[in-house]
Predict the 3D structure of the following.
Amino acid sequence: MAAPAADRCAAHALPSRRTAAGLLLLAVLAGGCEVGERPLPYGDASPDQRLSGQRLLAQYQCGSCHAIPGVAAVRQQTTGPVLAAFGRRSYIAGHVPNRPDTLAHWIADPAALVPGTPMPAMGVSPSDARDMAAYLLALE
């Protein structure tokens, strides 16, 4: 036997408590997922270290392959990925977690982390690589 029409309409007009709770949870999670409002995870390097990193990226001519905000490009056409907002990326070369230690290691010896990568070893010292990583990780 079918429910009266008024009961059927009421059942469809209001979401169940479970549905309402799920919608509320989604709204809260969506509001908390705005990347632009969160601080950069590793953007706390000193201004001196970031400035040193910026200069080193130019000195090692990283702009030959990458477009890097604040670093002059050596060539107009780049072959490597654009490094804007690098501090918000989760991975380096799509495989390596993007953290200060792994990024510095990547800059100094990329093939050690991703064999066969087209990123060349540029003879960057570990100290220079840490400064370069500090600059890149501060890019929003």
